[in-house]
Amino acid sequence: MLASTVLNHRQHVGLQQLSALAGITRSSLGPDKKYKFIQDERSGESALVCSCFRVLENLELTCGAGQLVHETVRAHQKAYGTGSGCLLFLAGAWSRAALECLQRGVPVARIISAMSEGMDVCLDVCRTCGVSTEGLGVAPSESRTATSQGSGPRLSKKPTVEASRASDETLSASGRRKLKLSRHFYETRSENVPQPPQPKPPDIAHISVGLSHGCVGAMNLVVEASRIQSRNNPQDVGCSTLDVTKVVTCVLPGLPEEHACVLQGCVVLVSHEQASVAHHLKEQHLKVALINGDLSDTYRHLGFKRLQGVQRVSDRSHFLSSTKEEEWTERTVALLSNLEVNLVVVGGLASETVIQRCSTHHMLVVEKANSSVLKALAQATGAVPVTYATQLSRHCVGAGVKVAIWRDLSSHERKPSTTVNISTVEGSGLVTAVLTSCVDGKLQALEDQFWACAYRLHHALKDKVLLPGAGATEMLCVLRLHEQAEQKHRPRAGAAHNPYRGLVLRLMADGFIDYISTVMVNTGEVSKVTARTAVSQQLQHRTQSRGAAATFSQPVLAGEQEDGAAAVQVYDSVSVKQEAWRTALDLVLLVLQTDAEVITGIDPNSDGTQEDVMLL
User: Which CATH superfamily is 2-133+467-556+568-599 part of?
Assistant: First the structure.
C-alpha cells in the first residue's frame, strides 16, 4: 500500500507514511463498515476484513512508521477492544496538520506545544459534555437530561454535573469530611448533608442500542450475555453489569448467521471420537483437571525452554524418542485415571496420542481454552491449574462439571465435528457467544464486531458516563478549538508566547471535521461535499447562538428515521475515545520528533531559525 504512495523526500517522511497508512481506515469508520479482500501475491491466499486492526495485521509493513503504527494499534486493541479506527484516522489527520505547519515554517517545538494544548481542550470537552448512565433510558418521564425532537442530545446542567462527578471521582477526594474522634480513630460521615438517593441502575437494553454503532446483531448477543450473567449473580439487579473476562466466543462455519446465540458455559468444537466420549459422560457430575500449558511430553514453560536447533545424533534416536513419548503418555493417562478425572481442560495444545489414549478411558480432553475459561472453572469447581500433568494431585482436581452435546455439525462440515457445552453445577458466570456464518472468511469479522460491542458496553458501564456519539462530541471539540484559536493567548508562567497557536488549533479542528464528514459519507446517504457543508452549517449556527445550551445534533443520523420516529441516540465510551485521541496525538508527536531529531539532527526544543530545518 505504501509503495503506491508518492513521498516527498524533502519533507518528514515519517509523517507522510503515517498519513498514507491512515488512509486504510476511511472505509471502516461509521455504522456501515465496508469489507475488504486482502490477497497475498506470493501465496495467493486472501483474507476478508472490515476493521483497520485486521487490515494492519495482514499487511507486510516494512517502514519504521508502519511498524510503529501496528504496535500502537495492537496495544490499544488489546487494552480496549475497540476504537482503533478512530485512533489511526485522527493520527493520519493530525500528521497532515503537522506537515502543513512545517510547510508554513512553524518550529517543531511550537507544534508540539500547541497540539498538546489542543488535546487538553478536547479532553475538557469530554469531561463537560458527558451524560451519566444513572437511570438512563429507565422511563421517558424520569429522564429529563435529553430532549431530542429530531435534533440529537440536549445537554442540560444536571447530566453535565453528574457526568463530570462520575468522570473525576477517581481523581478527586470524597466530598465527605473526616472528623477526628481521637488520636487513633477517624470516622467518615456527613455533616448535616442529606443522603443522596440510591443511583438507579442503567438500562442496558437502552444503552446498548446507542452503543451498537451499526452492529445490531452483535450487540444483541452481548446484551443476552449480560442477562445470563445477571441471572447467575443475585446481587446484580436489573442486568446492569457485563464481565467480559467471563465471556468467550465459539465460531461455527456452515450454519447461517441467524443461528448465532449465547449459551451459559463454555461451548467448544470436538472431533467425532471425542463426541462419543462426551455422549458417555453426559448427565454426570464430572471431575476436572486444568492444565495451563501444552499437554505433551516436549512442553516446557518459558522458564525451562530447551535450546532450539540442538539435535542428538544417534542411529536409534527416533526409536528412543518414540519410547520416551510412549512412557510419558502411559504415565500421564495412568495418573489421570487414578485421580478419577473425566475432563481435562488444556490452555495450549494436547498431544494427539494423549487425546486418543484418554478417549479409550472415557476421558474428554479440551484444548486451546483461554485463561478466562480456566479461571472461571477453577473458581467454580475448586480445581487448581497446573503447568504439567505430572504436578496433578487430588487437591488439584475439581468437581461439579457437566458436559452436554449442543449440536452435531457433521452434515455441515466435511470432517465430523460436534459442539460440546461445558458448564458447572454452581453458576460460574461463564457464557459463550456462538457465532455462525455460511461464509468461512466472514467469521473473523463477525467475531471482531461482537468483541467491539462487548468492550464498548463494558467500558460504558465501568465509566458510568457516556459521550454523545455520531460526531456530536467531535463537533463540540471543533467549536472549542476554534474559540481557543480566536482568543488571545495567555501563556502559563515560565512558558514562552506561541504565535502559531491559533494556526495549529485550527488545523487540529480540521482533523475532527474530516473525521465527522468521512463517517457521514460512509453511511452512503451524502457526498463528501454535502457532509462538509452540513458540518459547516452546524458550526456556524452554534457560533451565532453562543449563549444557548449545547444543542449540537448528531450529524451522522440526519435527524429522523424514514418512518418519522426520532433518530436513535448514539453514544460513545468516554475512556475509549479519550485514549484513542491521546494515543493518536502521541503517535504523531513521536514521529514528528523522531524525524526532527534522528533524520535532520535538529533539536525540536529549539525554535530553529533556519528555513531548511525540515529538509532531509
Answer: GroEL-like equatorial domain (1.10.560.10)
Model confidence at 146: pLDDT above 70: no
Which 3 state secondary structure label does DSSP give 379?
A: helix
Answer yes or no: is pLDDT of 231 > 60: yes
Q: Is the pTM of this model over 0.85?
A: no
> Which architecture, in CATH terms, is 266-300+320-428?
3-Layer(bba) Sandwich (3.50)
| Domain boundaries of the chain, sorted by first residue | 2-133+467-556+568-599, 266-300+320-428
Q: In this structure, are strands 266-271 and 417-424 parallel, antiparallel, or unpaired?
A: antiparallel
Strand partners of residue 38:
47
What is the pairing mode between strands 343-346 and 286-291?
parallel
Residues sharing a CB contact under 8 Å with residue 385, sequence separation 6 or more, in sequence order: 290, 291, 292, 347, 374, 378
Is the confidence at residue 610, as pLDDT, over 70? Answer: no
Dist. CA 304–CA 297, nearest whole Å: 13
Most confident range (mean pLDDT) of 41-45, 210-214, 593-597 is 210-214
Instruction: Name the average pLDDT for the chain.
Output: 77
The edge-to-edge listing of strands for the beta sheet with 364-366 is 266-271, 417-424, 398-408, 286-291, 343-346, 364-366
**Within a 10 A sphere around the Cβ of 6, how many other Cβ atoms?**
7
Q: Which helix (H) or strand (E) segment is 22 a member of?
A: helix 13-22
DSSP 117-130: HHHHHHHHHHHHH-
Kindly state the cell numbers that stand for 549.
445550551
Q: Does residue 602 sit in helix, strand or coil?
A: coil
Residues with Cβ < 8 Å from 327, sequence gap 6 or more? Answer: none
469 falls in which pLDDT band (50, 70, 90)?
confident
Answer for the pair 200, 132: CB distance below 8 angstroms, yes or no.
no
Q: Does the pLDDT of residue 181 top 50, yes or no?
A: no
